Amino acid sequence: MTPQSNISVGETYAMAGPGDYFALLKPRVMSLVIFTALVGMLVAPGKLDFFLGAVSLLAIAVGAGASGALNMWWDADIDAVMSRTIKRPIPAGRVPRAEAAAFGGFLSVLSVALLGLASNYLAAGLLAFTIFFYVVIYSMWLKRATPQNIVIGGAAGALPPVVGWAAATGTAPFEAWLLFTIIFLWTPPHFWALALYKRGDYERAGIPMMPVIKGEASTRRQIFAYALILGAVGVTPYFMGMAGLFYLAISAILGVGFIALSWSVLTAKPDDYGPAKKLFGFSILYLFALFAALLVETIVKMGAGLYV
After folding, report:
1. Can you give the pTM of this predicted structure?
2. What span, in angstroms and rounded, lies between the C-alpha atoms of 73 and 71?
């Protein structure tokens, strides 16, 4: 299997700086991975060694960055024709494609080895699987093959809290997979909202995103359906004893907001993408706030001496 090469990418290169290699790591995506993994680590029962926990979190962050670099290596050709990605280091001609591949490959091995040494083999294996799934299953296969690319591929982005939980405890119980499920269900409406108002980008790049293949009306209906399910699952940690009333209130209010905005997307005129843009922005706040609420409650418990 080889990257698509309909477009010549970066045949001449300017001098790359540290910022260009940092950009390969997809720092905004990495920040969400770090945050959700941290919540998984802290919500997990038991006491966590601060130093080993910090090293484990660093390893997870490096693994997320490695996935980003390898994704940019593979997708350099389509990045070159999409308005939101054309300034990335490879299509912009600042980093050679081969260097990005080597950089991502080195960081992948380093992150998995470091996590195995700092925590346990289960966490390291889950991190290795996450990188493999994102790069091979999603980037190399699903992304260019099916409109369900985001649905199935979303598993990679949903795994960090499970990896964090495993790093802290050496186990991956149902509670960790509940956090996975929340992110997994959040991913399709989040990215499909973006795909609605960036449809032209995906058409030019030949990416079979849902609005391109199934049409915008179908995409809007599916966004709303996922929002309903997400709203219900989002409050579940409270009923599982993982969270308290503060989390229940936050998740319920934000869930209603998510559903309401999804309804606006569903009922908007065909050429009105304002609601989709609002939903995309709100979806980021939604996920961050849910995990932040879990984190706040956990820190309060630790401070009160109730975290055992």
Report:
1. 0.92
2. 5
Which residues does the chain have with pLDDT short of 70?
1-15, 304-308
pLDDT tens digits for 278-302?
999 999 999 999 999 999 999 988 7
Neighbour-count burial for 291-301, b at 16+ CB within 10 Å, e otherwise: bebbbebbeee
- Count CA within 13 A, CB hemisphere, residue 77: 14
Amino acid occupying residue 173: P
CA distances from 258 to 94, 144, 228, 254, 264 (A): 39, 28, 9, 6, 10
DSSP 136: I
Residue environment code for 231-263, b if the CB has 16+ CB neighbours within 10 A, otherwise e: bebbbebbeeebbbeebbebbeebbebbbebbb
Is the dihedral angle over the CA atoms 274, 149, 219, 185 positive or is it negative? negative
CA distance 257 to 82: 30
In the chain, the amino acid numbered 295 is L
DSSP 143: G
Token pair recorded at residue 215: 């049409």
Note whether 227 and 262 are within 8 A (CB): yes
Query: What secondary structure letter does DSSP report for 142?
Result: G
* pLDDT tens-place string over residues 82-121: 988 999 999 999 999 999 999 999 999 999 999 999 999 9
